[in-house]
Amino acid sequence: MKNKVTANQVPTKPQIFLFGLVISLLVSMIFIFLCAGVLTVGNFAHSIAFPLSSLALGVGGFFGSRYAAKKIREKGYLCGLIIGIVLFAVNTIVSMALGGFAFTWMSVIRLVIILLMSMLGGILGINSASSKSLVK
Prior knowledge:
Blueprint: H1 13-41, H2 49-72, H3 76-98, H4 105-134
């Protein structure tokens, strides 16, 4: 007999991580589109594109890892680290597929930004989840 999915079924950790990654990707895409609009409308140099795209990926990692850590309620830094690494890997694979990737020191800076923002999101996700459970 197959297991039936009920409305009260608790998602597993891999499902939470996957949903956190989806949140990271969606938020990153929204921020990248907003930054592209700002660069298109405004009169900015092309050199600002890298910091804005790195910031957009960092913000996406922040929100995705915050969600995952809030749901898992343990080891927020590790949740952020995992989501950050996977987000960087997805970004790298997409960049390679589009033909615009070269691993340079800028890639390392982007990795550090994504990991720090994701770990911060995970830590804050744990703290926000635990503070709500203490209030009665």
